Amino acid sequence: MNKPSIALLLLTALLLAGAAVRTHADQAAPDPAGAVAPERLTQGALSAPEYAFKQEVYRRHVARGLTSGRPRVFDLPSSALAPIPGTQTLMRRDAAAALGGLLGAARADLTADLDAPGQDAETTDRRERARRVEALALDNAYRSASTQFGIWDRNYAGYAASTRAARLLCPGGEFGPAAADLLREYVGVRVAAPGFSNHQGGTAVDFALRCQPAAAPAIVAARLGPSAAQADPWKESWFWLWLNRRAGAFGFIAYLPEPWHWEFAPDRAGKGRS
Ligand SMILES: [Zn+2]
Q1: What distance in angstroms lies between residue 3's CA and the mean position of ligand 1's atoms?
Q2: How far is the CA of 248 from the centre of ligand 1 (A)?
Q3: Would the pLDDT of 251 be above 50?
Q4: Would 38 be classed as within a structural domain?
Q5: Based on the domain organization, do 52 and 187 belong to the same domain?
Q6: Which of these, 38, 51, 86, 151, could form a disulfide with 55 (CB 3.0-4.6 Å)?
Q7: Number of independent structural domains in the chain
Q8: What pLDDT, on a 0 to 100 scale, did the predictor assign at position 228?
């Protein structure tokens, strides 16, 4: 091989290597954190200082998640997800299958409780609660990072309004660092930062319940869903009492502050439960 041919070969090899590197960079997944960056929060009617404060609260909330030791999760690949049987709602494959089993068992037990002939206090109570149930349903399960980001973004205004009086008393004022920590704390018990919700991991489900409103048991709305205002009615419902007895057998555990929210955690479920 003569010298010009070797040079040409080397040049070709370098060009190919360059192309390979460029192709790799082009095909790499976009930075998932970019989709949930604080700059993407909506400003709406907020003034510049108010908007900067919103971003700061968000940054602090994400930073809190990063130091919690929990892995940060963005979107699951669609191959990891499956619809919960009989629905369009997605969950992680194993959780979806387990939840299908749970819902089937709950519906069978609901029918059995409605038809139970016993007149003892427990049977009567279950039958009365079962009569209030029109349908066991799902509100939501898997959420993408951008869905979780949207929830955080939308809910912020209400949280900011609820904490304003307390923030005005903070050293540094309502938009100072102490106020940012106060609001971050307040937000943190109500919504997870994007990347840190177990809905994003595909293992959490928020149930819904269609029911007949009744004074006793105190089911006050025709539909119970993920709402803090409905925590007490949820705990009076046939379904919640059933979940507490049986969900562990299907690998689901309760999250007590939110009676509608259950998590698939088979390693932790079932201990001490029937
Ligand atoms: Zn939930």
Answers
A1: 69
A2: 17
A3: yes
A4: no
A5: yes
A6: 38
A7: 2
A8: 86
